[in-house]
Amino acid sequence: MTDDKDVWVFSEKPALQAELIAGAHQLSANTGGQVAAVVLGARSQAEQAFDLGAQRVLWLGELPSGRLVEDIVPTLVAAVQDKCPFGVIIGATVRGRAVAGRLAARLGVAALADVLEFQWDGSALLARHMVFGGGAVRIDRPLASPVIATIGQGIFETGSLQAQPKGEIEPLPWVEPPWQAAVIERRSRAVSSVNLSAAKRVVCPGRGVARQEDLGLIEELAQALSAEMACTRPLAEGLGWLPRERYIGISGAMIKPDLYLGVGVSGQAQHTIGMSESRVVVAINKDRGAPLMTQSDYAVEGDLYQVVPALIRALKARKAK
Fold first, then answer.
1. Residue 126 burial (CB count, 10 A)
2. Given this model, what pLDDT does residue 273 score?
3. Collapsing DSSP states into helix, strand and coil, what is residue 291?
4. CA–CA separation, 25 vs 151, rounded Å?
5. In a domain, 182, yes or no
6. Could you tell me the end-to-end alpha-carbon distance of the chain, in angstroms, rounded to an integer?
7. What are 26-69's pLDDT values in tens digits?
8. What's the CA angle centered on 49, arms 148 and 193, to 5 degrees?
9. Residue 143 lies in domain
10. What is the CATH number of the domain that holds 43?
11. pLDDT per residue over 70-84, tens digit each?
């Protein structure tokens, strides 16, 4: 039996999988098929997919010891060739991108990277997605099937999803990859539990912050605003001042808060693509020519070490009234 109207979703991260399911429902509303979650993990995770809104569950089982996530690609290829879904949406994580690229290559189709929105032109699917590292947005019409797309966190909202009745979990037979990378060592790293995509207010420091200890001042501002603190990529990956989960941008979090406040953020395209849908954008920077200053709704030209303390005092005084 073929499922040429169904839309499959896969992510090794359960939180992202919920958002992909929401996006898949938008597609299946036009294709007339069902949303199937492809789950890698314990059976309890497969069962949870129904609670996240999946109508079907295809279970890969738990990843065998010494394997990498992308080793599931031969299994996915066999399943896709057997069932012929309309499309496969994959979370745009490091591993997810590797899976999407290999899956598309094996199936002889193109992979649509970093999709921001799906649109329909009659019966034709259009995908608006980022290209050139977030420097531009392009609309493509996939001509071959299945449609393979990667989507990052924060693109689709899960609020309207309803839990589905528990159905049968369909195991996918494991297909041994013809070759695989060897896992030499695994190292644990601290993971932040922040969910920037759900934050209504975000304060984001950039390279204008001179020292790591000065982040305490930015955190105090975030607390005064009841906001989450994010950061630009250099602060997370270049300097290691904040966890990777807190940086906004093309390869980080995609956010849509009511308020985004950039403190010492220059505003390069790789960052702004991740916060461009903020309702209100405020920038604090001593450089009037910084790109974010020209793109913001409100721009404060000044030294952040003078502006931020004054803003904190004003916010605290207002709360005290």
1. 14
2. 83
3. helix
4. 14
5. no
6. 67
7. 888 888 889 999 999 889 899 888 988 899 999 998 887 778 88
8. 90
9. 7-171
10. 3.40.50.620
11. 899 999 999 999 999
